[in-house]
């Protein structure tokens, strides 16, 4: 299991429209078009090579405020953490990726994020730019 980098930071916002205006207008982050429908109102934004996820209202704890670490093997990461006595959620598919959640000793939520294998150029933003793996 390799922890590769921060994949995204997820923030809870009171009003998604106001938050989008701020993050895309004032901070010039770019909206993504690949957010799967999770039943929670939100938006994904690009910030350089990383993402900021905005979640409106009071989402379930596991999808609220957290940061995500990209891993190369989610199953191996889960096994290693469980073997150390850490509670880790089951792995679930979200869009083309897989994720699992855990908490640090202070109760902060952490997502383990395993992206789908890259298959050539992929759309990255609403502007039509391509992300070359």
TrEMBL record:
Keyword vocabulary terms for this entry? Metal-binding
SUPFAM superfamilies tied to this protein: Glyoxalase/Bleomycin resistance protein/Dihydroxybiphenyl dioxygenase (SSF54593)
Q: Where is this region: Disordered?
A: 99-133
**Which PROSITE patterns does the record cross-reference, listed alphabetically?**
VOC
Alphabetical list of InterPro entries matching this protein = Glyas_Bleomycin-R_OHBP_Dase (IPR029068), Glyas_Fos-R_dOase_dom (IPR004360), MMCE/EMCE_epimerase (IPR051785), VOC_core (IPR037523)
Domain VOC: where? 5-115
**Compositionally biased region (Polar residues):** 122-133
**Is Metal-binding one of the keywords?**
yes
Mind telling me what this protein is named? VOC domain-containing protein
Q: Which organism is it from?
A: Saccharopolyspora erythraea
């Amino acid at each position: 299991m390799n922890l590769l980098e921060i994949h995204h930071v997820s923030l809870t916002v009171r009003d998604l429209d106001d938050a989008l205006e701020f993050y895309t207008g004032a901070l010039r982050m770019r909206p993504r078009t690949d957010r799967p429908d999770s039943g929670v109102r939100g938006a994904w934004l690009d910030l350089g090579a990383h993402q900021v996820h905005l979640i409106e209202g009071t989402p379930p704890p596991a999808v609220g405020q957290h940061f995500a670490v990209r891993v190369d093997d989610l199953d191996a990461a889960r096994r290693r953490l469980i073997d150390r006595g850490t509670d880790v959620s089951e792995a679930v598919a979200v869009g083309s990726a897989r994720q699992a959640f855990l908490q640090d000793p202070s109760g902060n939520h952490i997502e383990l994020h395993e992206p789908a294998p890259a298959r050539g150029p992929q759309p990255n933003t609403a502007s039509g730019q391509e992300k070359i793996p």
